[in-house]
């Protein structure tokens, strides 16, 4: 069940830390950090530090570690941000959730893992140990984006020299030159990460542009009356003004709230 920790803020406002106490989700989220940090360590130790060209090692090391840092920052924000939970309690009018007892606004769904109704719930992702909903969708999108870019960088950095060596016959049956096992493992991790993250990024981007969550797509539900153009839907998630804040996991878009916010009694 989500643990909510009060944080300091302006008077009259409660900012809460959100954390889902799910063993499987915690294990998956921790494994994500282990893979990213492990890949950074193996790349640095086995590929970049031994490089004869210092500029080559510095440039590629800085690029990959920047992408890894942004990916993990977005992952942390997606994991520790309230995805858009509906306040517990009942209000006059509107359907009531039989599981958590809240008055369920339109387009909200109950998550069996978080044990709460989540506004515009897309899905519960064990890799971030949280639901992907109205208030943390930007962070999940950036997590998949930077993970895909970092994995692609690894694929190009390791795969291109490997293909060149194979084309030159350096890996034939008579050659004593063999690729390092750690680099092969890193290449496979990068390939899996790129395929998974790029597919998730494309799926999320399509869902945001069409203003339809994955649950709504599976249930063939229509989006609510607030859906607009693709550009307006993007701005609703990433921010109302086009800026570098769109690609920053540290910039929080203005919180969205359903029309006619329910008053908890």
UniProtKB/TrEMBL annotation:
GO CC, sorted alphabetically, is:
membrane
* Keyword terms of this UniProt record: Acyltransferase, Membrane, Transferase, Transmembrane, Transmembrane helix
Task: Point out the signal peptide segment.
Answer: none
Reaction catalysis annotation:
L-cysteinyl-[protein] + hexadecanoyl-CoA = S-hexadecanoyl-L-cysteinyl-[protein] + CoA
- Domain (Palmitoyltransferase DHHC) spans 97-219
**What Pfam families does UniProt report for this protein, alphabetically?**
DHHC (PF01529)
> GO MF terms on file?
protein-cysteine S-palmitoyltransferase activity
Membrane topology note:
Multi-pass membrane protein
Name the residues that span the membrane. Answer: 23-48, 54-74, 139-163, 183-202
Q: Which Enzyme Commission number(s) are on file for it? A: 2.3.1.225
For this protein, the record's PROSITE patterns field holds: DHHC
Q: Which family does it belong to?
A: Belongs to the DHHC palmitoyltransferase family.
The written remark on domains in the entry is: The DHHC domain is required for palmitoyltransferase activity.
- Per its record, how is this protein called by name? Palmitoyltransferase
